UniProtKB/TrEMBL annotation:
Domain Acyl-CoA dehydrogenase/oxidase N-terminal: 12-118
InterPro entries hit by this protein: Acyl-CoA_Oxase/DH_mid-dom (IPR006091), Acyl-CoA_Oxase/DH_mid-dom_sf (IPR046373), AcylCo_DH-like_C (IPR036250), AcylCo_DH/oxidase_C (IPR009075), AcylCoA_DH/ox_N (IPR013786), AcylCoA_DH/ox_N_sf (IPR037069), AcylCoA_DH/oxidase_NM_dom_sf (IPR009100), Mycobact_Acyl-CoA_DH (IPR052161)
Name listed for the protein in its UniProt record: Acyl-CoA dehydrogenase family protein
Domain Acyl-CoA dehydrogenase/oxidase C-terminal: 228-381
Cofactor requirement: FAD
Keywords attached to this entry: FAD, Flavoprotein, Oxidoreductase
Family affiliation: Belongs to the acyl-CoA dehydrogenase family.
Domain Acyl-CoA oxidase/dehydrogenase middle: 122-209
């Protein structure tokens, strides 16, 4: 691939920055941080109305003709301003999956409605007894006339409080090996049998336990074949690990920390950045951030050529999230005691942005599959090493 094509054109980035300057008040990020809900309805509406969200989606399902590079630059800019767009993130992953494995009717129903802003979708895979071993899901879906009745519980159903649907992994056949009896459904969250309970995490993000009691769905809500859910999950998890991302997931901590260190003086009057140990650590961060960006480009290039790059998506997720954890730990060292001050506390560096990042990055190595699971996938799929765990 030609990496030159992938770098953000500075004029496009300036346009995106000016767009965000005009449209995005700082209160939105503050509200996401305060509530832990990674969704801002006003922003979502704006991105739809301006065609930014629909860039690079097929026109027949509501995609727009906005330049995808501009759309990516806007998402980078939102990210830089602390807006997480998590509900759209999970919706995009599911819609990309539906484009691959769904029926024509589902593409017209869910994808088109999502691009109009009428549908938002949360991921309902993890259960109290099955996370990494997601194929052990026990939530039951039983045929009932021309539909299905669902009973069970999920854990960590993030941003569902803002969503219209859950993309729900269920067990439809308990009498076969666990990977062979799974089926996915689009479950509406306004069903009277649906309930949720918030869970607040270390990183400030709100996620949820969700409960399904005699929830009834039509067969048209089934995504993929009956008992064919494992093949659907293969597609969905690749998209979750970065392949569905429209932003370049640009990591900007090195630049922000360098700016802080250049502006901040120690008691002896020297700039923090003049300390060679500080400069070296920031340089190492910048190198890692560039590597993460290049893996993202390579991933996107493969997706755009029609591949489903399972190992590359795991490499991107593993490298970017573990590097970010190291970087925020380094940042806390460099900032010293003041680095512990949160947003709003007098004297907190960058108004608590580094402190928040330090907590928020802890969970990124867990959701979407833990680092250990990513290493197993890379070992098996990329290096051809023998499988490290027994087949279920
Ligand atoms: C903030 C947050 C948001 C989330 N959002 C969602 C969501 O929206 N939807 C959803 O469905 N899920 C979500 N999750 C759940 C997430 O995907 C799971 O937490 C993750 O898959 C790990 O599962 P677990 O928590 O059950 O841990 P476990 O599977 O119990 O793992 C515990 C530890 O054992 C290790 N381990 C387990 N099996 C192996 C193995 N075979 N080899 C080596 N090591 C192993 C793991 O790496 C981990 O370190 C979210 C989680 C968090 C923290």
């Amino acid at each position: 691939m030609d990496f030159r094509d992938q770098h953000v054109d500075p004029t496009v980035r300036d346009r995106a920055r000016a767009w965000a300057e005009r449209h995005v008040p700082p209160e939105w990020a503050a509200r996401e941080r305060a509530t832990g809900t990674h969704h801002t309805p006003e922003l979502h509406r704006l991105l739809i109305d301006e065609g930014i969200l629909g860039a690079a989606w097929p026109a027949e399902y509501g995609g727009s003709d906005v330049d995808p590079a501009f759309s990516r630059a806007v998402f980078d800019e939102l990210n830089r301003r602390g807006l997480a767009t998590g509900a759209w993130g999970s919706t995009g992953m599911v819609c990309r999956t539906i484009l691959e494995v769904g029926t024509e009717q589902q593409k017209r129903t869910y994808v088109a409605a999502a691009l109009r802003g009428e549908v938002l979708i949360a991921l309902g895979y993890t259960e109290p007894e099955s996370g990494s071993d997601v194929a052990s899901a026990r939530t039951r879906a039983v045929p009932d006339g021309d539909g299905w009745v669902i009973n069970g519980q999920k854990m960590f159903t993030s941003t569902v409080e803002a969503c219209t649907h859950v993309f729900l992994l269920t067990r439809t056949n308990p009498d076969v090996p666990k990977h062979k009896g799974l089926t996915l459904f689009m479950v509406p969250t306004d069903d009277p049998g649906f309930d949720l309970r918030p869970i607040h995490t270390l990183g400030g993000q709100r996620t949820n336990a969700t409960f399904y009691t005699d929830v009834r769905v039509d067969d048209a809500a089934r995504v993929g074949a009956v008992d064919g859910g494992w093949a659907v999950m293969h597609v969905a998890l690749v998209y979750e690990r970065g392949a569905a991302s429209r932003s370049s997931k640009e990591l900007t901590l090195a630049r922000e920390l360098a700016a802080w260190a250049a502006d901040t003086r120690r008691p002896d009057g020297s700039r923090v950045l003049d300390d060679p140990h500080v400069a070296e650590r920031i340089a190492r961060m910048a190198i890692d951030e560039e590597v993460a960006r290049l893996i993202t480009f390579s991933l996107r290039d493969k997706v755009e050529r029609g591949e489903l790059p399972r190992a590359t998506s795991s490499m991107r997720k593993l490298f970017a999230t573990t590097a970010a954890q190291r970087h925020y730990a380094d940042a806390m060292d460099i900032l010293g005691a003041e680095g512990l001050l949160s947003t709003g506390a007098p004297g907190s560096p960058a108004d608590g942005r580094f402190e928040h990042g330090y907590r928020a990055e802890v969970v990124t190595t867990i959701h979407g599959g833990s680092s250990e699971m990513q290493r197993e996938i890379i070992a098996e799929q990329h290096l051809g090493l023998p499988r490290g765990r027994p087949r279920g």
